[in-house]
Specification:
Helices cover 10% and strands 33% of the residues. The protein has 180 residues and is mainly β. It folds into 2 domains: 108 residues, Roll (DNA Polymerase III, Chain A, domain 2), CATH 3.10.150; 56 residues, no CATH class. It is elongated, with a radius of gyration of 19 Å. The N and C termini lie far apart (48 Å).
């Protein structure tokens, strides 16, 4: 097994469960072509260049400590001589323990087919919006009024209302620009 992971690919660890009540959800899951993580409510997957058959679960507390090696362009995960471990080559060489258990079967969660409608939102604007909201666990409500209209976002218990402008997106070639 040898897998190169960039910092962006490793960011999926942020979707993993923070608590350890369900240990496999406190891990990133690496399998053929994908790295993924879930907390039971959100799932994030990113494509990776790995065509091996071995699946690996790595605890996020260990995984998040990994630092990029700039000449390598990220970190390299490789087989270790120690049983049930993976070597991580980055700024330092780190031995990660493989976790046991079965990661949830996530394929049915990624819906296929034609959606009711599509809307494109800038990640930077979405991050800016999230940072402007309070950091508590109050539900955030999204109201969609069509593909070319702003998205209304509310936190009714706080009296918060926000509007996020959609972007024009050519879905075939993935070119983006702000809607005018």
């Amino acid at each position: 097994m040898e897998i190169k992971l960039t910092k962006d690919q490793r960011a999926v660890a942020n979707a993993a469960a923070k608590d350890t009540d369900r240990p496999v959800l406190h891990c990133v899951h690496i399998k053929k072509g994908l790295i993924e993580a879930t907390d039971g409510f959100i799932l994030v997957q990113k494509k990776i260049d790995y065509d091996g058959e071995e699946e690996v679960l790595l605890d996020i507390d260990e995984f998040k400590r990994l630092k990029d090696n700039k000449p390598l362009g990220g970190i390299i995960l490789t087989s270790s001589t120690e049983e049930n471990t993976v070597r991580a080559l980055g700024q330092d060489e780190v031995i990660l323990r493989k976790q046991s258990g079965n990661f949830p079967y996530t394929e049915p969660l990624i819906l296929k087919g034609e959606p009711v409608f599509k809307i494109a939102l800038s990640r930077q604007m979405l991050k800016k919006l999230i940072s402007a909201l309070d950091n508590n666990n109050t539900p955030v409500k999204f109201y969609f009024y069509g593909t070319k209209n702003p998205v209304r976002i509310e936190i009714p218990t706080e009296g918060t209302v926000a509007v996020l402008m959609p972007m024009f997106c050519s879905w075939e070639d993935e070119k983006w620009q702000l809607t005018k």
